[in-house]
Specification:
This protein has 230 residues and is an alpha+beta fold. The chain contains six helices and ten strands, in the order αβββαβββββαβααβα. The chain has helices at 2-8, 46-57, 146-150, 170-173, 181-187, 200-221, and strands spanning 10-11, 25-30, 33-40, 66-70, 74-77, 106-109, 122-125, 138-144, 164-169, 196-197. The chain has an eight-stranded antiparallel beta sheet with strand order 4-5-7-6-8-3-2-9. It has a two-stranded antiparallel ribbon with strand order 1-10. Strand 4 and strand 5 (74-77) form a beta hairpin.
Length: 230
């Protein structure tokens, strides 16, 4: 049985998170303070990130409120109507469900009950809720200023809703060029190595080690503290 387990063992690759670059950092200045810096993830949600960048550069979000904020859950904004029923003049987006978990600080697109209805609204997770995983398109995560997100006025709607004073892409603030196909390729993280299977020689070595450990365990079980036999 042990040998069979050794035969089937596969070493899984570790997930690769891309480096933080100014071209993929969303900056939110709120009426309760800021900045909130959010790392965007075009590697897992390219269409959603492109939509956010487009609307930010049109100053779409400037002046909009967080209209639905549930304490211990999330803060939702990005609706020009301020009711949860609005969006931009651009078409709705195709869902890009991915493996980014909905932990504290994750930012996702809001939608209706239909998967492909996200448009401009987004929400910031104030506490983890993994039940949202693979049901909403996560496109980034707060990397700085989470305390300001915590300070967003609560309510559905809030009595005095918090506003997005200004939203920007950090590279624009720094006067740096926007992304190009060349810069995207240059900043792309290396691909994770493919899972590797143990060779026949490695399996035999593992089996020998297992047998040796079993013998060692049997000896240790015969002795109590201080090596005194029980």
């Amino acid at each position: 049985m042990m040998a069979g387990s050794a035969h089937a063992q596969v070493i899984a690759p570790s997930p690769v998170v891309p480096p933080v670059t100014p071209q993929n950092v969303l900056v939110l200045q709120l009426s309760v303070g800021g900045p909130i810096r959010i790392q965007l993830r075009p590697d897992i949600a390219p269409g959603s990130v492109e939509r956010i960048k487009t609307l930010v550069r049109r100053h779409f979000y400037d002046g909009l409120t967080f209209h639905r904020v549930i304490d211990g859950f999330m803060a939702q904004g990005g609706d020009p109507k301020g009711t949860g029923e609005g969006g931009s003049d651009l078409p709705d987006l195709k869902a890009e469900f991915n493996d980014l978990p909905h932990v504290r600080g994750t930012v996702s697109l809001a939608r209706t009950n239909e998967p492909n209805t996200a448009n401009s609204q987004f929400f910031i997770m104030l506490m983890p809720n993994l039940g949202l995983d693979h049901n909403y398109t996560a496109f980034g995560r707060v990397i700085e200023g989470m305390s300001y997100a915590d300070s967003i006025e609560k309510g559905e709607p809030p009595a005095n809703p918090t506003k997005i004073v200004h939203a920007s892409i950090e590279s624009d603030d720094l006067g740096q060029p926007a992304e190009t196909p060349e810069s995207i390729a240059a900043s792309k993280p290396p691909e994770a190595p493919a899972p590797t299977k143990l060779t026949k020689k490695e399996r035999k070595e593992m089996e020998r080690n297992i047998e040796a450990n079993k013998t060692s365990d049997a000896v240790s079980k015969m002795s109590g503290p201080g090596g005194q036999q029980q």
